[in-house]
Amino acid sequence: MVKFANRIQPCDNGLNDIFTYANDPALISFAAGYPNNHLFPQAELKSAFASSLTDSTSLQYSGAAGLKSLRAKIAQHISSPRRTFTAAEILLTQGAQQGLDLTAKLLLDPGDGVVVEAPTYLGALSAFDAYQPTYYEVPLQDDGMDLNVLQKTLMTHHVKFIYTIPDFQNPTGSTLSLPKRQALLRLAQRYDVIILEDSPYRDLRFSGESLPSLASLDTTDHVISLGSFSKILSPGLRLGWLVTTPELLVPLTELKLGNDVQSSTLVMSAIDQYLDQHDLSDHIAKMNQAYAAKMATMLNALDHYLPAAVNFTRPRGGFFIYLTLPADIDTGELLKQVILPQAKVAYVPSASLFPVSHQANGLRLNFTNLDTATIELGVKRLGQILTRVLAQPKYAKL
Ligand SMILES: Cc1ncc(COP(=O)(O)O)c(C=O)c1O
């Protein structure tokens, strides 16, 4: 039997049960975080790839930092009157996911402290776990991290970086308010801690005004900021970006070189062509309109079908709504024993989204890759079962 490295933990994040039912045509899955297949600009990307392939350089190596013309376009996309970014501040990555791995690889020795929002993105924990950090959870409020808890943590523990998803957080959909963004940056400066800002949902705002990114507010070089084409163009392209200061960008680029040499020249060049030929903001506006309607359907259905003991978030964008059940319910057990077999609905249970406390009474729902009728039907089934379950005291011990 092969002996894995000590740092490799057995994988039991509660998602395996979903795969048992994945081929059941009756299953309605709110579990994955996929963009909608019908919204990919497929014809436009096809022609962008075709025109890239007319030039043989798109099939050649092109350097670890990524195509400069594409970095310049990304710099323009993320710039605002408050702060102008340049291509020199950007490293192109294999999705935002690679930015998580590179940052952890650069900063963490085994046992080093990492602050995470509770709950947080499971994929980030998977990336960080490989470097064996000590996690500190900071609870999330409607307007982002509880900064009092954060400050106490920073006062009492040595923390290497604070991981935050400030816009339409995964899994809760919550957004960090502007005063808290400013206060978070002050804390990072006072305790000299890096903020890892992970913001793949940033452009997917359905209502209200966009808030400045942490990177654009940072005046003391304490932010590494991640973005991605996955949710605004296509995750199959596997292209994201990392923005930071030269002090960090140079070693991060070296690490990228050691990981995978560079991102795909063909993909970078096709995205560059696409952005030359099309207005990305028009495409994003179209997506936001479609996703806003799906989220409204889900929120209405949750209002209508859920029992009163279940609370849920009301995001203003992004991909997810988060439900909180009474404290003694384990949504992982509930999924396996009741919801999957009887309601044929899937969600992501919360225990694995809390790396320390493993709080089990939450669940994440995604609304982007289903049509509105299916969303309504799935929530109805979920709501009916939850109403029944919560009325029966025996399930409280699940
Ligand atoms: C918060 C967050 N960060 C990063 C990622 C990874 O995205 P990418 O496809 O850009 O690697 C995801 C994907 O779901 C995410 O939700």
UniProtKB/TrEMBL annotation:
GO terms for biological process: alpha-amino acid metabolic process. SUPFAM superfamilies: PLP-dependent transferases. Residues 41-382 form the Aminotransferase class I/classII large domain. The keyword DNA-binding applies. Its cofactor is pyridoxal 5'-phosphate. The keyword Chloroplast does not apply. Keywords: Aminotransferase, DNA-binding, Pyridoxal phosphate, Transferase. InterPro entries: Aminotransferase_I/II_large, Class-I_PLP-dep_aminotransf, PyrdxlP-dep_Trfase, PyrdxlP-dep_Trfase_major, PyrdxlP-dep_Trfase_small. It comes from the Bacteria. Pfam families: Aminotran_1_2. CDD domains: AAT_like. One of its GO terms (molecular function) is transaminase activity. Homodimer. Belongs to the class-I pyridoxal-phosphate-dependent aminotransferase family. This is HTH containing DNA-binding domain and MocR-like aminotransferase. It comes from Loigolactobacillus coryniformis subsp. coryniformis KCTC 3167 = DSM 20001. The lineage of its organism: Bacteria, Bacillati, Bacillota, Bacilli, Lactobacillales.
